[in-house]
């Protein structure tokens, strides 16, 4: 039995609340059980300096955790003068995931930044951030279209992410912290609404894993992400 008493293929309760930040061009609060992430999209009317004059835009992301998102207070990264390697790795993953489904030429020479701030962490913060950031990005480009800043919708597909793992020898979906911290294998899958893979991260923590176990996790992830995409569609309908 899983610590949460969920079935192996069962997601935590997932909710998506849009328009939670008054001044952002797009925003949502996404909850994967006890993991809560605020995602905001901010539009800048210019691309990064290295992209100027190329006729296309950029989508990037920043990720952080509030000091009491976890059981003990974590020092703000701004006070130390640099981000941790974990934060840099996660925000790059978020940016790559969103760019995979965005027509950057369709943005023109503009940049959209997705800020993903973890209010409360209980495992799967990066997967929740990717799934929520897509909703915030969708609403940002909708805002742009409503003001005739762009003509066509530049999002080609949905993108969402979910964690999987091998726990007590069995593949399971959407690990919370109690399960993730004790799992033999930890994996994260990012996929489009059409089912294509964007990124796979899989690591043997307490034991190596087989091809069959990797395939079993992929099967769980594919079904879980399909449900998340349905929630995204409902949220933005």
From TrEMBL:
Enzyme type, top EC level: transferase
Region (Disordered): 69-88
PROSITE patterns, per the entry: RIBONUCLEASE_PH
Top-rank lineage group of the source organism: Bacteria
Entry annotated with the keyword Nucleotidyltransferase: yes
Keywords, in A-Z order: Nucleotidyltransferase, RNA-binding, rRNA processing, Transferase, tRNA processing, tRNA-binding
Domain Exoribonuclease phosphorolytic, residue spans: 10-140, 159-223
UniProt keyword Lipid biosynthesis, yes or no: no
Molecular function as annotated in GO: 3'-5'-RNA exonuclease activity; tRNA binding; tRNA nucleotidyltransferase activity
CDD domains attached to this UniProt entry: RNase_PH_bact
GO BP terms: rRNA 3'-end processing; rRNA catabolic process; tRNA processing
SUPFAM superfamilies found in the cross-reference section: Ribonuclease PH domain 2-like, Ribosomal protein S5 domain 2-like
EC number: 2.7.7.56
Reactions performed catalytically: tRNA(n+1) + phosphate = tRNA(n) + a ribonucleoside 5'-diphosphate
Pfam families xref list: RNase_PH, RNase_PH_C
Protein function: Phosphorolytic 3'-5' exoribonuclease that plays an important role in tRNA 3'-end maturation. Removes nucleotide residues following the 3'-CCA terminus of tRNAs; can also add nucleotides to the ends of RNA molecules by using nucleoside diphosphates as substrates, but this may not be physiologically important. Probably plays a role in initiation of 16S rRNA degradation (leading to ribosome degradation) during starvation.
Family per record: Belongs to the RNase PH family.
Oligomer and partners: Homohexameric ring arranged as a trimer of dimers.
Name of the protein this chain belongs to: Ribonuclease PH
């Amino acid at each position: 039995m899983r610590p949460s008493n969920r079935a192996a293929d069962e997601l935590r309760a997932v909710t998506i609340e849009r328009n939670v930040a008054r001044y952002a061009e797009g925003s949502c609060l996404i909850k994967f059980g006890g993991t809560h992430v605020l995602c905001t999209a901010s539009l800048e009317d210019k691309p990064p300096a290295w992209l100027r004059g190329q006729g296309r835009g950029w989508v990037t992301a920043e990720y952080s955790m509030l000091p009491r998102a976890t059981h003990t207070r974590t020092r703000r990264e701004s006070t130390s003068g640099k981000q941790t390697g974990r934060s840099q790795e996660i925000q790059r993953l978020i940016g790559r995931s969103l760019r995979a489904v965005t027509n950057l030429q369709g943005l023109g020479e503009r940049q959209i930044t997705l800020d993903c701030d973890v209010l409360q962490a209980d495992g799967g913060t990066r997967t929740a951030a990717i799934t929520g950031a897509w909703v915030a990005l969708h609403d940002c480009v909708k805002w742009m279209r409503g003001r005739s800043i762009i003509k066509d919708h530049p999002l080609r597909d949905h993108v969402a992410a979910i964690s999987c793992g091998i726990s007590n020898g069995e593949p399971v979906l959407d690990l919370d912290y109690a399960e993730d911290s004790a799992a033999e294998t930890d994996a994260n899958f990012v996929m489009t609404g059409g089912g294509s893979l964007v990124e796979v991260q899989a690591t043997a923590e307490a034991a190596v894993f087989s091809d069959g176990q990797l395939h079993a996790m992929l099967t769980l992830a594919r079904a879980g992400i399909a449900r998340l995409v349905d929630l995204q569609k409902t949220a933005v309908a």
